[in-house]
Amino acid sequence: MPKAHEPPQPPRLPPGHLTPHFTLAEMIASDTADAEGIENLPDADEVDELGETALLLEKVRALCGGQPVLISSGFRCPELNAAVGGAANSAHLYGCAADFIIPDFGSPLDVCHAIEPHLNEWGVDQLIYEMTWVHIGRAIPPTTPRAQCLTINDGGTYNGIVA
Q1: Measuring CA to CA, which residue among 112, 115, 98, 119 is closest to residue 52?
Q2: Which CATH architecture has domain 17-159?
């Protein structure tokens, strides 16, 4: 039992968990890495950043009624980032981003509309509606979050969430 002057300790997470609902394994999993034999392993600093990204995803999950968040891309090593055509300075390279869907909540557009009002409050750098998934990114340390909303589709990149 903690002493009166000690704050209570948070419950221990199961092995492999970054947060109650997100594991390191799901944050580094990649079909492309598997298919191309790419070892997509983060270093200790990147794992720390993935933990912060998982905390952000916990907020998203709670906002969306506790529905499961299905991650399609979290951390990407440079080789994997190049293989998927990621931006040269992608937040994925640092463990600061995730692409995901929440099918039990709604479409990626529905998810973006739910998250958009919370960008400043949550310190989000980018929220990108990518038509079939959502990208959420934290600022790459030591930069400041931009609270930027974008849409990326076949026509290009647009400011704001555009259906």
Answers
A1: 98
A2: 2-Layer Sandwich (3.30)
Q: Is the pLDDT of residue 4 over 70?
A: no
> With a threshold of 0.70, does the pTM exceed it?
yes
Residue type, 153: N
User: 6 in helix, strand or coil?
Assistant: coil
pLDDT in tens, 46-79: 999 999 999 999 999 999 999 999 999 999 999 9
1 pLDDT more than 70: no
Reported in sequence order, the residue ranges of 22-82 that DSSP labels E, i.e. its strands, are: 22-23, 70-73
| Contact yes or no for 154/110 (Cβ under 8 A) | no
Instruction: Give me 13's structure tokens.
Output: 């997470």
Taking the C-alpha atoms of residue 14 and residue 61, their distance in angstroms, rounded to an integer, is 19
Amino acid code (one letter) for 61: R
Backbone angles phi, psi at 51, to 5 degrees: -60, -40
